[in-house]
Specification:
By secondary structure, the protein is of the alpha+beta class. It is built from nine helices and 16 strands. About 25% of the residues lie in helices and about 25% in strands.
Length: about 300
């Protein structure tokens, strides 16, 4: 008993001495790492501009100190990150990967006229769907998961949004950017129409910021209770979302900002259904997704939401 108490006293003394030393040397530590640094898993990490500092952040493309990837990420994420879980940065879009469901949480894009303009140097037919090997094998989706599933590999960051160079469009074919979508009547029709609508917005706005992702919404069943039910496909149990969303902000030449938000059910949709019929209040999407979109923009600063004056 005496030995145990002695051991506890020694532990407390060590903690106290450690705290005293850290306090006395705080200035030296701050000078070494800077004020904009944090500790993760016992390691001191400096906060780099344009990238969130978080334990699960990683990048599919290398981080560059000046220009290049850093500046592009800062530009894409100008109005805030919806979340910081497993963030991966590609050359022309940024996503958060859902390791449990093997699909993205969200995918963020910044579009201009130049990004969506026809480019003869870019050939979509040369692109191959491929797994992202930067994802741990336990959490990776594979082409075999989609084979004979009855679902398309549906782009979250649309290939047609990234036509500046071949590498950009190639990267949209990583399976980290995909989610299972109904093919006929949805991915190749209604969803494609929504993607085209977003590209057309670049004719109105200098900058278009688009966030896209899956939803798993509850449905009331025969017993009167609500359940969240969704199919999974393949050996890696890739989740099939019940719905998909897009939240878009357009930045006009005069600096004013407009927002549009859409939710589409992952099912066959009649061709004549207008895109506008899927508009919903942005907060509806945020509640369903558990994310806050464009949190650096106060809603009162928006000019229009879904075409209506704020």
């Amino acid at each position: 008993m005496f030995r145990k108490r002695l051991f506890h006293l020694a532990q407390l003394s060590a903690v106290g001495l450690g705290g005293y030393y850290a306090g006395q040397n705080k200035e030296k530590i701050s000078n070494l790492f800077g004020e904009d640094s944090i500790t993760i898993d016992g390691k001191r990490i400096k906060n780099m501009p344009g990238l969130p500092v978080f334990g699960t952040v990683s990048a599919a493309t290398p981080y560059m100190e000046s220009g290049g990837a850093k500046d592009r990420i800062s530009q894409i994420m100008k109005y805030g990150f919806p979340g910081l879980d497993n963030v991966r940065s590609y050359d022309d879009f940024v996503l958060s990967y859902d390791r449990r469901n093997r699909v993205p949480h969200w995918v963020f894009e910044h579009l201009t006229k130049e990004h969506v303009a026809k480019n003869d140097a870019v050939d979509r037919s040369k692109c191959d769907f491929q797994p992202d090997e930067s994802i741990h094998p336990f959490f990776r989706s594979l082409n075999s998961d989609y084979k004979k599933s009855g679902f398309d590999r549906g782009h979250m960051a649309a290939a047609g949004n990234h036509r500046l160079c071949q590498k950009h469009v190639d990267q949209t074919f990583f399976l980290t950017n995909m989610a299972p979508q109904v093919g006929e009547g949805f991915n190749r029709s209604a969803w494609n129409n929504l993607e085209k609508h977003v590209r057309k917005l670049t004719k109105v706005y200098n900058n278009v910021y688009c966030c896209t992702g899956p939803l798993y919404l509850p449905r009331r069943e025969a017993d009167g209770k609500s359940y969240v039910r969704y199919q999974v496909i393949g050996a890696n149990t890739v989740a099939v979302p019940t719905h998909f969303y897009k939240v878009v902000v357009g930045e006009a030449p005069d600096g004013t900002l407009d927002m549009e938000a859409y939710v589409m059910p992952n099912q066959r949709i009649p061709d004549e259904t207008p895109v506008s019929s899927f508009m919903v209040p942005p907060e509806t999407v945020e509640r369903a997704a558990g994310l806050l979109f464009f949190d650096k923009i106060h809603r009162s600063k928006l000019n229009r939401i879904n075409g209506k004056k704020v």
